[in-house]
UniProtKB/TrEMBL annotation:
Pfam families the UniProt entry points to: GFO_IDH_MocA (PF01408)
Name of this protein: Oxidoreductase
Superkingdom assignment: Bacteria
A GO molecular-function descriptor: nucleotide binding
Species for this entry: Liquorilactobacillus mali KCTC 3596 = DSM 20444
Family matches, as Gene3D superfamilies: Dihydrodipicolinate Reductase, domain 2, NAD(P)-binding Rossmann-like Domain
InterPro entries on file: Gfo/Idh/MocA-like_OxRdtase_N, NAD(P)-bd_dom_sf
Domain annotation Gfo/Idh/MocA-like oxidoreductase N-terminal: ranges: 16-132
Length: 348
């Protein structure tokens, strides 16, 4: 299936966008897409048609709302879908999108398990004209890539400690006796899936696939992980991941060389990164865009505006390979802590 796109006045092709979900993260993505100048929001899916239509009106009077997913994919005037639903729904919605011939940008984590990921990989081989991206925003930022380049240049790696612990606005609701999606086993939630995915992307991208992993989780009343400590074991060193959604941490993150150390203000935001060797400090970071999704939107745009390029197809395949590895590490970590999602049971 080949999609016809309107030609943008600037010379590139306009990309018609459909979105699933109407939360703050979807709004941030659409804003980044509009700032890019090559996207047009046309369709919104929500379980509430009122929410879908209200969300659409924030951007254009021409956006159509849907509450039926089949109708959204069959009638919606878009070629790219951005999926920002609860984690457990990512797989099935991505599967339907691929079957409908839509390019997919799915929020992290892309899937609940390697079993789900394998199904999507098989589908993508059949529908090889469809592009599929996991929206791990920091993976596309220049500062992330600069750290990866610097790590490769270090003669010795002796480990790393990466921290991302942020008190969730949904935790008060959980403490009140409710079960928001982000703290639910039924919706593939928890600290590791929500914030730990950033740290796993860091580790896999900068150091490669670990030899073995383990996760010591602080479990809440329903068995979900509120926070935890993960160990990723490599040949000769260990990478420690400190992650949580029920407390705040203000610790920096570090990568240890021999005498030099890479110091990050935050292992997910990467706004301030320095290479320190004794009294010598070198700034590694560049100023980032105000919208943290700008870098990934720019990357997705350049590929989707030229979908027949073999180089672009290879780039997507390379990114997908990292997504598959991250998915595997996340699964192995929570399996080591005996955290079982409903989605796991459905694939047994």
């Amino acid at each position: 299936m080949v999609f016809k796109k309107a030609i943008h006045k600037g010379g590139g092709s306009m990309l018609r966008l459909g979105v699933i979900g109407t939360g703050w993260i979807t709004k941030q993505f659409v804003e980044a897409a509009q700032e890019n100048g090559s996207w047009e929001l046309t369709s919104v899916f929500s379980r509430s048609i009122e929410k879908a239509e209200q969300f659409g009106r924030e951007f254009s009077e021409n956006v159509k709302g849907y509450r039926d997913l089949h109708q959204f994919f069959s009638e919606g005037n878009f070629e790219v879908v951005y999926i920002a639903s609860p984690n457990s729904l990512h797989f099935e919605q991505s599967r339907q999108a691929i079957l409908a011939g839509k390019h997919v940008i799915v929020e992290k984590p892309a899937c609940s398990s390697p079993a789900e990921m394998k199904v999507l990989q098989r589908l993508l081989r059949r529908y090889n004209n469809v592009y599929y991206f996991e929206a791990a925003r920091h993976f596309h930022e220049l500062n992330f890539l600069k750290i990866k380049e610097t790590v490769k240049q270090m003669d010795t790696i002796q480990g790393a400690t990466l921290t991302y612990m942020k008190y969730s606005s949904k935790y008060d609701d959980f403490l009140a006796g409710n079960e928001p999606n982000v703290f639910s086993l039924n919706f593939s939630g928890g600290a590791l899936q929500d914030l730990g995915v950033y740290l796993v992307y860091d580790a896999v991208s900068w150091f490669g696939l670990p030899d073995s992993v383990s996760y010591t989780a602080t479990k809440l009343r329903n068995g979900i992980d509120g926070k935890g400590l993960a160990l990723l074991n490599y040949s000769g060193y260990t990478v420690t991941l400190n992650v949580g959604k029920i407390a705040n941490s203000y610790l920096t993150s570090e990568i240890y060389g021999l005498r030099e150390t890479i110091i990050m203000d935050n292992a997910a935001d990467l706004a301030d990164v320095q290479l320190v060797d004794g009294a010598t400090k070198r700034i590694l970071t560049q100023k980032t865009a105000a919208n943290p999704m700008a870098a990934e939107v720019s990357d997705f745009t350049s590929i989707l505006q030229d979908p027949l390029s073999l180089d672009n197809k290879q780039k997507m395949e390379d990114w997908l390979a990292v997504s598959v590895q991250v998915n595997r590490v996340l699964y192995d970590l929570r399996s080591s802590a005996n955290i079982v999602f409903r989605a796991d049971k459905e694939f047994r």
